[in-house]
């Protein structure tokens, strides 16, 4: 076996189909299939259960996966030790993040890192779901819940705050709610209820709201709906400075706190990724503190 065969094996195991693995490997499915067959012949065992639904690892494949990932990590650490020894960082790092963080925090943080390290390429993967590090969708991820598997390490990154907000035009037309119980009669903006990918994001249920007339999987879309006068929304305090049309509503009753977690693969990181993780950690904490300290109007 050689490392190139291991790359094909890992990509197929993570993608669970030849077609999906094609994007990672930049090989056509027929070539990937031939490489898998060659690997299985060398191993003397079937590594995948193959069906029209995709490729699923056999017991032998699962055993090989653990060793292949160890080899991948060791190789990454070796390369990182070379690039991390210099002051300047290089290469490509992909960061997975929920779109609120990806839209309102990471652009500033990544811009500052890129200015200090011009040979470093930073990619932000903003998805309305949990980024799958096990399939190597990203090198690290910012999540709203601590990872629940031993294969991932979660570090508490920073708390952040959320408030109920609406445009002044909406409140002038529809009135200002006097209590949380009034919200059931107001037009609310939030996530599509059956597409909430993490319980930490189910803000409106906790407020007794059962109907969401304006909904999106994206918090930035929700914010724009609120800015347009669509209704009341739970928004990140760090996003409020970008929305001067909005004002806080019921600030004494609706003041939520959630936590960002910095999630990486368990085990030792290579020197380069360790340095980048530290830069992101400090940058995001500073950016949340800066934005949350900016003045925002309260309800009239």
TrEMBL record:
<dbReference type="Pfam" id="PF03466">
    <property type="entry name" value="LysR_substrate"/>
</dbReference>
<protein>
    <submittedName>
        <fullName>LysR family transcriptional regulator</fullName>
    </submittedName>
</protein>
<dbReference type="InterPro" id="IPR000847">
    <property type="entry name" value="LysR_HTH_N"/>
</dbReference>
<dbReference type="InterPro" id="IPR058163">
    <property type="entry name" value="LysR-type_TF_proteobact-type"/>
</dbReference>
<dbReference type="Pfam" id="PF00126">
    <property type="entry name" value="HTH_1"/>
</dbReference>
<dbReference type="GO" id="GO:0003700">
    <property type="term" value="F:DNA-binding transcription factor activity"/>
</dbReference>
<keyword id="KW-0804">Transcription</keyword>
<feature type="domain" description="HTH lysR-type">
    <location>
        <begin position="1"/>
        <end position="58"/>
    </location>
</feature>
<keyword id="KW-0805">Transcription regulation</keyword>
<comment type="similarity">
    <text>Belongs to the LysR transcriptional regulatory family.</text>
</comment>
<dbReference type="InterPro" id="IPR036388">
    <property type="entry name" value="WH-like_DNA-bd_sf"/>
</dbReference>
<dbReference type="InterPro" id="IPR036390">
    <property type="entry name" value="WH_DNA-bd_sf"/>
</dbReference>
<dbReference type="GO" id="GO:0006351">
    <property type="term" value="P:DNA-templated transcription"/>
</dbReference>
<dbReference type="GO" id="GO:0043565">
    <property type="term" value="F:sequence-specific DNA binding"/>
</dbReference>
<keyword id="KW-0238">DNA-binding</keyword>
<dbReference type="InterPro" id="IPR005119">
    <property type="entry name" value="LysR_subst-bd"/>
</dbReference>
């Amino acid at each position: 076996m050689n490392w190139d065969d291991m790359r094909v094996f890992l990509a197929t195991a993570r993608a669970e189909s030849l077609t999906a693995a094609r994007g990672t490997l930049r090989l056509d499915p027929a070539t990937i299939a031939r490489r898998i067959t060659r690997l299985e012949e060398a191993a003397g065992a079937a590594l995948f259960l193959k069906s029209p639904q995709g490729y699923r690892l056999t017991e032998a494949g699962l055993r090989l996966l653990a060793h292949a990932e160890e080899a991948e990590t060791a190789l990454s650490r070796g390369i990182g030790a070379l690039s991390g020894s210099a002051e300047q960082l290089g290469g490509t790092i992909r960061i997975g993040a929920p779109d609120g963080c990806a839209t309102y925090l990471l652009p500033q943080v990544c811009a500052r890192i890129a200015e200090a390290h011009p040979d470093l390429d930073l990619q932000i993967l903003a998805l309305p779901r949990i980024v799958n590090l096990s399939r190597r969708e990203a090198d690290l991820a910012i999540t709203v819940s601590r990872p629940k598997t031993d294969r991932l390490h979660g570090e508490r990154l920073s708390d952040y705050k959320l408030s109920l907000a609406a445009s002044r035009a909406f409140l002038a037309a529809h009135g200002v709610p006097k209590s949380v119980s009034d919200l059931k009669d107001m037009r609310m903006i939030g996530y599509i209820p059956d597409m909430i990918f993490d319980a930490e994001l189910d803000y409106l249920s906790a407020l007794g709201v059962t109907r969401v007339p304006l909904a999106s999987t994206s918090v930035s879309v929700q914010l724009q709906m609120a800015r347009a006068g669509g209704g009341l929304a739970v928004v990140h305090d760090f996003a409020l400075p970008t929305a001067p049309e909005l004002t806080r509503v019921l600030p004494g009753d609706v003041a939520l706190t959630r936590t960002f977690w910095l999630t990486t693969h368990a085990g030792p990181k290579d020197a380069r990724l360790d340095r980048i993780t530290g830069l992101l950690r400090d940058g995001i904490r500073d950016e949340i503190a800066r934005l949350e300290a900016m003045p925002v109007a309260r309800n009239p």
